[in-house]
Amino acid sequence: MTKNITVAIDAMGGDHGVKVTVAAAIKCLARDPDLHVILVGVEDVVRTQLRTLRGIEDARLRIHHASEVVGMDESPALAMRNKKDSSMRVAINLVKSGEADACVSAGNTGALMATARFVLKMLPGIERPAIASELPTIKGRTFVLDLGANVDCTPEHLLQFGIMGAMLVSALERRDAPSVGLLNIGEEEIKGNEIVKQAAELLRHSGLNFYGNIEGDDIYKGTTDVVVCDGFVGNVALKTSEGLAKMISTMLREEFNRNILTKLAGLVALPVLKAFKKRVDPRRYNGATLLGLRGVVVKSHGGADRYAFEHAIRQAAREVKNNVQQRITEKMAVLHKDVA
Amino acid sequence: MTKNITVAIDAMGGDHGVKVTVAAAIKCLARDPDLHVILVGVEDVVRTQLRTLRGIEDARLRIHHASEVVGMDESPALAMRNKKDSSMRVAINLVKSGEADACVSAGNTGALMATARFVLKMLPGIERPAIASELPTIKGRTFVLDLGANVDCTPEHLLQFGIMGAMLVSALERRDAPSVGLLNIGEEEIKGNEIVKQAAELLRHSGLNFYGNIEGDDIYKGTTDVVVCDGFVGNVALKTSEGLAKMISTMLREEFNRNILTKLAGLVALPVLKAFKKRVDPRRYNGATLLGLRGVVVKSHGGADRYAFEHAIRQAAREVKNNVQQRITEKMAVLHKDVA
What we know:
The structure is a homodimer.
Chain A (H helix, E strand, L loop, with lengths): L4 E6 L7 H14 L3 E7 L1 H10 L8 E5 L10 H7 L4 H11 L4 E4 L3 H12 L9 E7 L4 E5 L9 H19 L5 E5 L10 H11 L4 E6 L1 H6 L4 E3 L2 H26 L3 H21 L7 E4 L4 E4 L6 H16 L2 H16 L1
Parallel strand pairs in A: 1-2, 1-4, 2-3, 4-11, 6-9, 7-8, 7-9
Antiparallel strand pairs in A: 5-6, 5-10, 10-11
Helix pairs in contact in A: 1-2, 1-11, 3-5, 4-5, 6-7, 6-12
């Protein structure tokens, strides 16, 4: 018997709100018979959109009213203090109460992080939540964390990120000992700043499959299954990648649009270019998970379209199905016993 | 009357040694009548290679003997202490003595940095050298620094990087007030770690054309002429970009090689793909400059081929021609007067 999974969706979040979130929910429900969805948001708005898209309220899809919306540029602290009935907060509350197994939001990252941490609390032994996301590599994929939750990290935080990342991959891919790399500016042990050096020491004695230091290019080489870094470095690496990918696709388009001959060449090459684009389509990697909380919380890109938001919902369902939370908790318990 | 420029080349450095360095020197001499070159290295080895390539020793091309070679993986400290007659060290000595206006090396980065700093000393008011390099953007190009010389930076170091970067661009492009962006993980002033926040304050009152915080994707958008960051973050951004670019080109090749139809499409699209490749060819951006020293020192990528190494030589000549050193010195003097 497979277990039903209920995902609470912050229907109002993101740049496109209900247009994207409701459409993605309907698509996901059609594809995954084990999935249940609670659309959290201003009831009238959500219901109107649902009807427009011919979605049906039933046992697997229900609307949960929340009267407020957190703005994309709102201060996380103010949003948390003043908007207790926001779609984001209520979706998280549903996870806390057990009515939902996970929640997904394309809203304000800072507010989501602060609210989730406040409402759900941390898993035992984990001091800080980390944002983890899948990235494509030449070999397949890798998980990178932290991508921006923590700008100043201690070596212990980096160790905890390593543990959470390894347990995430081990749960999702059902593999025993995924490899963990520490992002640095050289492979030698003497390289890097003091925090990274100490983190390497901790990771080396953690019982994880620690590969050692890796460099920026190792992310896309797929050298390790997990890449650990502080949130400042991870965020810069991620955003720099987004910028470079955009520049490359802009330049490719420009070259193929240069004149009638290049346009014809572009037509001939179109199926190949499409196949290529599909492989690196960032929408397929949408859905960053906030690891370390007592509950599954997935953050979608604010600008996500329906297709991208579907991936975020599926990411949340996958984490529940594969007991990511439990794996992290168990591994932390083992580590603490070893220390004690 | 144009001034002659003499560049000392560490002929033994890099993965390919004289094969690349001597060939590139001959090419550059043919293209630039103002250029003089001193090839520094084991005399016999350099001369043999020069003859193989039908190069001629004359007033514009001479060989300067140096008996030792710094290994690519050698400890910078040991190389500096024990190899006083290395091609790298002697090339730097020639800058110190005034026989050369600049030096170029594809050798060990750490050793080059340590030796250059020891021999040449810093410009007044600059505490640390920084590695700066040009990167392509959608709009043109931008200069990023530091790319790996300094793993721990104070706000004052970041300010100095901003000044050096701005003076570099202003000298090379003869522009008055190039814009300077501070790499951060959000555009808002409240974002980032303490060091970056304080650096923003210093930059805001520096008299530079400070744009404010930028994010990783702004590098390739070309949002600012100069991008300032610490060496850890800069190195990760650079290497991550290299990895992503490689992954994208590998995947493109794979898609065009999938079957006979895609191969035909590839043939049709080849001229366009070549034009595209030329625009983002990293060899055109080879030649990172070590800013802040009393002398022009340019570091070529270790794996550079002849074409790439030519760009490093030209970068060195361009800096001399445009008085980059003097601009930085003058700007620092103005700032110090303002403070005093």
